[in-house]
Amino acid sequence: MYKPASLRDHLTSALPDLRRDPDKLAISIQKGTVQATAAAGLSNLLQYTLRLLFLDYAGHVDAIVVPLLAWLRRHQPELLDNPDLRARAVRFEVDFLNAKTVDLQIELDLSERVIVTDSAEKPGRLEARHPVEPALLDDRPMAEHWELYLRDQLLAAWDLPAS
Predict the structure, then answer these.
(1) Tens-digit pLDDT profile for residues 84-117
(2) Considering the domain boundaries, does residue 49 fall inside one?
(3) Where are the alpha helices (DSSP H) in the chain?
(4) Would you say residue 152 lies in a domain?
(5) Separation of CA 79 from chain center
(6) Residue 77 domain-assigned?
(7) What's the domain count of the chain?
(8) 141-144 long-range contacts, Cβ below 8 Å, gap at least 24?
(9) Which of 2, 5, 15, 7 is nearest to 146 (CA)?
């Protein structure tokens, strides 16, 4: 699975607090399934709920949500494009620890296609690849740099590579 690591890398690079202390973000996978058919080949679809837990978080929630949505737009666009999925795309719970910090838990339902093919060079060898998600029609395929501000305070900054 590449999406959990990709999202961790994206959020860690976007949020100064996580760059300083990456252990403040715990990630787990819940309710995973593998969907496959009896058709020729072993390609499949992984579906799971990804749980992000931001520990002792003292920042503004926008600093997490906006980069998260940017990542979803690139890596799971149907969650934002489909009205039925959009209603439950990003779920969260907050535990207030004190007047300044919270534990923020976010859940996302993600999927990853796994394409399994026979190797052309080596008989008997199977090769698995995880293709990127199809881009939305209006998504810009060029590399981008984004910064998120709340008034004059920089909350987050991130780079999106060209797709």
Answers:
(1) 998 899 999 999 999 999 999 999 999 999 999 8
(2) yes
(3) 3-14, 16-20, 62-75, 78-81, 83-86
(4) no
(5) 11
(6) yes
(7) 1
(8) none
(9) 15
This prediction's pTM:
0.82
Cα–Cα distance for residue pair 25/11, rounded to 1 Å: 9
Residue 99 DSSP class: S
d(CA 11, CA 157): 9
For 116-139, what is the mean pLDDT?
80
Which residues constitute the domain of residue 69? 3-136
Q: For 7, list phi and psi in degrees, rounded to 5.
A: -65, -40
Task: Please report, as a single letter, which amino acid is at residue 92.
Answer: F
Dihedral (CA of 80, 81, 83, 84) sign: negative
Residue range 53-89, pLDDT digits in tens: 999 999 999 999 999 999 998 899 999 988 999 889 9
- Containing 104, the helix (H) or strand (E) segment is strand 102-118
